[in-house]
Write a structure and sequence with these properties.
heterodimer; A: 639 residues; mainly alpha; two-stranded antiparallel sheet; B: 109 residues; Helix Hairpins; 7% strand
Chain lengths: 639, 109
């Protein structure tokens, strides 16, 4: 099979699954859903593996979707090492999570059960389209569709008011990003007359190096401010999708969705789309230095900010949500300083350990009958041993304990920020990143000790939790193994061993341009050792903010972002909408419609008096009319 | 030519028109004052025939066959109308005893 057909097949499997399940799937026996739902994701995974092993690359055009004047939108898929890398994460980790859902969602009724897997397959398709798209228009299509599937899955339990509100919030926030993306694409199209990546980027790359003022031999149509504008607009989309400051408030609320959804969409794949976007657009960001710097700053600030909030959260999924924001902040930090491959390696390792954490947390929540408050857990170590160990592995990987995968990915990012030459911005974000790494150690430790160690809480809903079924435990186990040993593919940052991810991504996003030295390794190691120490210390000590009431309140209220947004946007909009309803809609528009109706009814009532129902009345009127007409005719004839 | 030759005797056309008018008025009066649906139907037939008479009269007077043809057409329509009207009446009588058209006033406003 050609690479071109294979690439299309990657997309078609999830679509076919979604259509099958949405059509008649829920009328068939449940085993049908169980096979088709995860099966199509694994089928896609096999196709991606085939592309990977065949070293496929190319820009495959299938047909022209829109042709209007100078706008030509082809349906083309860009297969390069970056998109294959992303597809491997999406279908591989996605396949594990969808398989896990078979057990997690078992209590759902049949239509809802099939509906869940329909949405999941739609999501996988949208995400694959997002990373495979070879032009800006299909990028936006995928971008909007992952937002839609996220909305559907957050609001999966639509009988719950809070879930519906959370879904709406996520959708609105994402649409802000979509608008940014569309405007950015527009700026790019106006300046380059193309929406195809290859054609756009070709106009950004000088055909020969040029220093100082020189007449360039290539068509360089952007002036720098325009390019910065486009880069910033695209960044709005990335920030909204990846839940970075200031468009982050939807992600914690999105935890209303089922736990596999949180693992797949709000940890492993969709929220990392912003990182993918910056990586894919690296020719733009390499030129637009201010937007590029903004990426790093936003990432670093979000990393610190989210980590501090995670210290005081008590809902286990919310801790993980803030931790996700924080880790994606690291990825933004990495791609923001130009260390693209390091950011993507952290994306991979984060997909492993955060999906693992969410799924292990899902095991606990499942056993605790949907209780998510960590204060009501405790003492699970003895009763849910495999889940506890898995969660511990995920936690240690998140903290960056040697030699788990999280250590290598985080160490590499921090090391590169520390050692980037002649760049004060990188040094600032390194300081923030290092502090965040320490806080990460603390809040992760707090979460683990609180949930699994100590005595069972008296408020615990279940005395003897049941062990998760095999279909849930096996994916967790696989991810636990990956989160433990995944680091061996990329130990190069320590100066020894391979750097497979860097090498693999180098053709797509460019090689790392600078090397660290031993001071970097020492700094990185000591940061991670300190973080590990804080993880252990969290067993005994309480957060410092417990002793400072205002700080505790500030963190518990999440820096008042929701309150500020409510006051600045939601309430004014409510007021405007309320005025429009009571001042315009009801009296003017409704009034006009109602009055028209009343007038018609009154007119009809008076006219209906003539409808006496007596035959002779009608005949009399008829004859009278005929006589009158005859008289008029006679008079006219005689005059 | 204001007279018509009928059976060898000459008769002024206005007599025929007068007869037609009288028949028409009788029919109209019947429709207006009688209440038995069957009689009303007969009165309508009377009006139609009055009109036919006028048509034939003018046809003879103007030496134009259009009037005769129109009278034939009118009779055909009258026959069809009688069929429909009688069918409705039969149907009404089948469900209830309607002596009086004023009882059939369900469609009043």
């Amino acid at each position: 099979m050609t690479d071109q057909a294979l690439a299309l097949l990657v997309l078609l499997f999830p679509v076919a699954g979604a259509i099958l399940l949405a059509g008649r799937g829920w009328r068939l026996p449940r085993i049908f859903t169980v096979i088709v739902g995860p099966g199509v994701v694994w089928a896609s995974f096999v196709c991606v593996l085939a592309l990977w092993s065949g070293k496929a690359h190319g820009d495959f055009t299938y047909w022209t979707w829109i042709k209007s004047g100078s706008l030509e939108v082809p349906f083309n898929l860009l297969i390069d090492n970056l998109s294959i890398f992303m597809c491997l994460v999406i279908t591989g980790v996605g396949g594990l999570i969808v398989t896990y859902s078979v057990g997690y969602m078992e209590h759902e009724d049949d239509p809802s059960y099939a509906r869940f897997f329909t949405y999941m397959d739609v999501f996988i398709f949208s995400m694959l389209l997002l990373v495979l798209a070879g032009n800006f228009i299909f990028l936006i299509v995928g971008w909007a569709m992952v937002g839609l599937s996220s909305y559907l899955l957050i609001g999966f339990w639509y009988q719950r008011h809070s879930a519906v509100v959370a879904a709406r919030k996520a959708f609105v926030m994402n649409v802000i990003g979509d608008v940014g993306m569309i405007l950015g694409t527009f700026v790019i199209f106006v300046n380059t007359q193309s929406v195809r990546y290859s054609e756009v980027f070709a106009q950004l790359t000088p055909s020969q190096p040029c220093t100082g003022i020189c007449h360039l031999p290539y068509r360089f149509v952007f002036d720098t401010p325009t390019l910065e504008l486009a880069a910033f607009l695209l960044l709005v989309g990335a920030v909204a999708k990846s839940a970075q400051i200031p468009l982050h408030t939807w992600l914690p609320d999105a935890m209303e969705g089922p736990t596999p959804v949180s693992a797949l969409i709000h940890a492993a794949t969709m929220v990392t789309a912003g990182v993918y976007l910056v990586g894919r657009m690296h020719p733009i960001y390499d030129v637009a230095v201010y937007a590029h710097g903004a990426v790093a700053i936003i990432g670093a600030v979000t990393a610190l900010f989210a980590a501090t909030i995670a210290i005081v959260q008590t809902d286990i999924k919310r801790v993980l949500a803030y931790s996700t924001m924080s880790q994606i902040g690291y990825m933004f930090l990495a791609v923001g300083i130009g260390a693209y491959a390091a950011g993507f390696f952290h994306l991979l390792s984060h997909a492993f350990f955060k999906a693992l954490l969410f799924m292990a947390a899902g095991n606990v929540i499942h056993a605790m009958h949907d209780e998510q408050d960590m204060r009501k857990y405790g003492g699970l170590w003895g009763q849910m041993r495999p889940t506890s160990i898995s969660f511990l592995v995920g936690s240690l990987s998140l903290v960056g304990v040697i030699p788990l995968v999280g250590f290598f990915s985080k160490e590499q990012i921090l090391g590169l920020a520390f050692s980037k030459p002649n760049d004060s911005l990188a040094l600032i974000v390194w300081i923030i990143g290092a502090v965040t790494a320490l806080i990460t150690g603390f809040y992760t430790g707090r979460m683990w000790w609180m949930s699994f160690w100590g005595k069972p809480s008296p408020q615990r809903p279940v005395e003897h939790p049941h062990a998760p079924p095999l279909v849930m435990m096996v994916p967790v186990g696989i991810l636990a193994v990956l989160a433990t040993v995944g680091g061996v593919i990329q130990t190069g940052a320590l100066g020894v061993g391979p750097a497979k991810v860097n090498d693999f991504l180098a053709p797509a996003v460019g090689p790392l341009r600078w090397e660290g030295d031993w001071s970097e390794v020492v700094i990185g190691l000591s940061t991670m050792v300190l973080a590990t120490g804080l993880f252990l210390a969290a067993m005994r000590i309480r957060p410092w903010s417990n002793y400072v009431p205002w700080a505790q309140r500030l963190l518990e209220r999440k820096y008042y972002f929701d309150e500020v947004y409510d006051a600045a946007f939601v309430h004014p909009m409510d007021a405007v909408a309320g005025f429009a309803l009571r001042g315009i809609e009801e009296p003017v528009i409704d009034g006009a419609v109602v009055d028209t109706g009343l007038l018609t009814r009154a007119g009809a009532a008076s006219l209906s008096l003539t409808q006496s129902g007596y035959f002779r009345n009608y005949v009399l009127v008829f004859v009278g009319g005929a006589v009158v007409a005859a008289v008029i005719l006679l008079l006219r004839a005689s005059s | 030519m204001s007279t018509l030759n009928i059976g060898g005797s000459q008769l002024d056309a206005s007599w025929f028109l007068l007869l037609s008018a009288i028949l028409f008025i009788l029919g109209t009066a019947g429709v207006l004052v009688r209440r038995n649906p069957l009689v009303i139907l007969i009165s309508i037939e009377l009006m139609l025939n009055a009109a036919n008479l006028a048509l034939v009269t003018f046809s003879r007077q103007l030496q134009n066959m259009d009037g005769q043809l129109f009278a034939l057409m009118s009779m055909t329509v009258a026959a069809a109308e009688a069929v429909v009207g009688l069918a409705i009446l039969v149907d009404i009588f089948r469900t209830r005893d309607a002596e009086d058209v004023d009882d059939l006033s369900e469609l009043r406003g």
